[in-house]
């Protein structure tokens, strides 16, 4: 038995590599904030259920949050750039393929937008939740 966690992150990291939106390179990271970046994507929170044994093999239900973050100095900026990044992410991940698994279903949810405004920064976040039904190969 193998869990799908690292394979899901590997697929997303590859699919989102070299992501450029509005002329800006958007780094993708696994939970750690990239240094000196005011727009980035974090692959956070994988949630999964115990696999179900079926006559066709082991089936996992797993989800991952794709956390899109834009940061502005002071009380500036808007959600528009985060929305542009979100649209590019959605365009790149239309038919996921997860190494070692057959993707039997994909549902996409969107968490409520988050924003934090302080005296020194304004941060906008958009979270896409990919829910996957995966059948373990072999």
Description:
- By secondary structure, this protein is of the alpha+beta class.
- Helices cover 17% and strands 48% of the residues.
- The strands form two sheets. Strands 3, 4, 5, 6, 7, 8 and 9 form a seven-stranded mixed beta sheet that branches.
- The chain is elongated and about 55 Å long.
Uncertain runs with pLDDT below 50, 5 residues or more? none
SSE order in H/E notation?
A: HEEEEEEHEEE
C-alpha end-to-end distance: 10 Å
Number of helices, where a helix is a run of at least 4 consecutive DSSP H or I residues: 2
Tell me, rounded to a whole number, the average pLDDT. Answer: 92
What kind of sheet is the major sheet? 7 strands, mixed
Q: Would you tell me the structural class of the helices and strands?
A: alpha+beta
In total, the number of strands is: 9
Helix share of residues?
10-25%
SSE inventory with pairings:
Elements: H1 5-15, E1 20-21, E2 24-25, E3 28-29, E4 39-48, E5 52-54, E6 57-73, H2 80-92, E7 101-110, E8 114-117, E9 121-136
Parallel strand pairs: 3-4
Antiparallel strand pairs: 1-2, 4-6, 5-6, 6-9, 7-9, 8-9
